[in-house]
Design goal:
Length: 66
């Protein structure tokens, strides 16, 4: 199973976002982003939901329906 931190980092780098911007969008601290991306910890259920929602929403914006 793909870790949420790995998907978050891939999303962040693909979209050219800094850790600061990502943290601000999710309403968390920069150290939280670092810990999740490096696999030092996993986000709680609420933050996991916010991450999945962010990734899903931004991916849909980038991939318009044909």
């Amino acid at each position: 199973m793909d870790r949420v931190g790995t998907r978050l980092k891939q999303f962040r780098l693909t979209h050219g976002w800094s850790k600061r911007r990502t943290a601000e969008e999710l309403g968390v601290s920069i150290p939280s982003i670092i810990r999740w991306e490096e696999g030092q910890s996993e986000p709680n259920d609420y933050n996991r939901f916010k991450i999945e929602r962010l990734i899903s929403a931004r991916t849909k914006e980038a991939d318009p329906v044909r």
